[in-house]
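Service request form, structural biology core

Requester: graduate student, group of Dr. S.
Request type: structure prediction, single chain
Budget code: on file
Notes: please return the result as structure tokens.

Sequence provided:
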Amino acid sequence: MRSKRLKIGLAVFALAMSPVLGAQDTVKAHWNFDEVKDGKTRDVRGGVDDSVSGNFRLARGVKGQALVLDGYTTHIFRTSDAVPKLGPDFTIEAWIAIGAYPWNWAPIAAQENTISLNSNLDAACWPDDITVNSPRDGFFFGVGPQGQLGLFAGAGDWLDCRTKEMIPLRKWTHVAATLRSGKGISLYIDGEKVAESPLATNFRPAEREDLRVGMGRQKLEPSNPVRAFATLACWYSLDGILDELRIHESALSAVEIQKRYAAERPDSEPDLPPRLLPSGPAGQGIFGASYQNLKYYPEWDALWPVSSDPDIVVQFDDTPVRVVFWRGTRYSPAWVMENGMWMADQSIENFNDDDGCIEHMLDPRCRFSQVRIIENTEARVVVHWRYCPTSANDHHSQVDPITGWEDWVDEYYTFYPDAVGLRKVILHTKGQFLWPEEVIALCHPGQKPEDVVDLAAMTLVNLKGQSHTYTWAEKTPELRDGDRYLHFGSAPEKRPVIMRVNMKSAIKPFQVFETTNRFRVFAHEHRKGISHFPWWNHWPVAQVPSDGRYCQAPDRASHFSLAWGGPPPHDGENGTFWWAWMYGATNDSAESLVPLARSWLLPPKVIVEKGDVEASYDLTQRCFVLNFNSENVANVQLRLEAESGSPIFNPAFLVKNWGDRDVRLRVDGQEVPRGKDFRFGKIRGINRYDLIVWVHLESERPVAIELTPEDDD
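Core staff response, request fulfilled:
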């Protein structure tokens, strides 16, 4: 009998201690997301099927399955007539795992009146500097742009209760809010009370409004804009996983909420795949360009209606560095280091006080941006990027009032096997020239700028090998007088032309500019205490219409700026402007790049010793161009008059109208076998073939080069 009484007592105690059973009678709605069928998910308590719209998937949950929301399109909707009638007191609880904080306040669950504010921001924004014009009813329980948890409720005034604590990223978190009319609101994270606000009157429900889960009822502007006038309202949703959402008709006690958290606390991590900017397979590859469909993470990938080859990756066979033309950067290329650090750049950019910036960054769906492979041989790769600078409100740059044509840009990227690339920018405009370059690094989600670059972030070098490293440790640096562009009369060899970015990688990216470039440090939009560098997340990856959004946390892919290289503009054909400069990556010192820079900026004179051919050097392609004066293409002998001031550094030769024949190479009379040190390819045109030759060769003395058609004796 004693044993039986003990068993009964233990059973009664377990029932009393069970948070789910103990509070089950108070539950008015419960979404467990174990199944979504035909676009419906079931409120298992209320027996109602609710619509699920947008992109979503089911993943392992706290219990059973859970709903993964994509951050842009996912939401659950229930009409007002089927929403549980909330009395004076209520509780809302859920399990969430946040992938990234929302662009502004986003609801876990909300049934509130819409309302106009004294700006274009939607009412769910509720930033501290916005004043509501009229009273509001209902409730909004959700997550803020800095990761705050909040409950907002109508009770005569629109009561605001939010946490200072941030909900952790990529962790299962139990969140709850209770409202007791006439007493107050309390907020809980993982069973602990973290915020409360008094409530002197009774809660007023918004019974005529629909219930929204995951997404607000109106478009909202992203929070914390750089320029509010160029940040537009848009749809977005929670980004992460939602499970076990319950609405109670009473205000649960702190003890009950703690018990509910403890009883359901999961052992496994949420099913949120890592979010690393994609760059293809790691390590060295075969030199060349490949079309790819680069995968970021499932929810972002699902936003893109693309097939198998929207992106391009360029690989090199002597370095793990890659160059990526990816739709997530609007196809602006990025150099990816051996450890996955990304170095990017700016495009042609305009600005006005109505549109803000007009640039490639503000074309999030790549409607005006595209890439294609032009050449792809063992000796050279050429990728073409074409785009139209665009503003957040879909306006364009320098529109011709007669023809309607706006600025368009063609950029040609020429890569050689030594992992050096040339960028040629051609601006088609009826207006003035615009600047095309800004030194920009990217952060993966979870990274701050300080994780990507050293505080001594930039080293400048001139053609004499003199260098200086600039640090952001105390403040934004100022360029020394000797490193500033002063006037055309200053000695070219004293002006810095090499810029190396000191990334936290073994291999570091660099750029080389003409001697009339204009270096400037990016010295605005810093936020003291946030980062040593100006830091934004409206680009890359983001799909919101914003000309600039300050990072609130390292939750999203982001970018930061260091400087402008300022390559000089040149007049081109048909009223165009063009620029050219060099990119690459090195695991050696910044000063070691001087011979490469000299070979490009001060190339050795080329003398034709045999052959009816004209020879010249093309800065924009980093190669010697040979044009035959007759159709008789035969043996060509050249002499490159190299010296220490004009060295040879891995020269390339473009021979026009060579024909569909292979070639033999002799250097100073010695035959060089085809292989890693001697590569060639044929570039097909209409009824013609050009020949491109690349030679692994460094010299500070004259060198004889002989090119012979393979079919000649």
